[in-house]
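Predict the 3D structure for this chain.
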Amino acid sequence: MTIITAAAQAHVSAGPGLLGWVAIAIAALVVRVLVVLVSTTGRCRKCRGRKITTSRDGTRARTCPRCKGAGRRPRVGSALIHRMIWDGEIGDKILAGQRDRNRQRREDRAGR
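Done. Predicted structure below.
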């Protein structure tokens, strides 16, 4: 076995390398975007979705100040992702289709 062959085998078995880490990062980013698209809110961390918080000794309960009693908080990046979609061409096409359907429904009702 030559030195070059041994070095090549050692390099291959060393780990994913830079390209592998970049691929993992891109995959994680895609998963995050999909999660935010499907569910824009998550449980409130302070009240854990229970909508109330208690004092340290457990005697007083009140509405959670962080979520204001909703039990849900917006996910990080949800506003940005939805703004990018709805302000872009995709959102324009979706909204144009909705406008056309609404106009058609109004015309159908008026023609009866």
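Strands lie at 41-43, 52-54, 61-63, 72-74.
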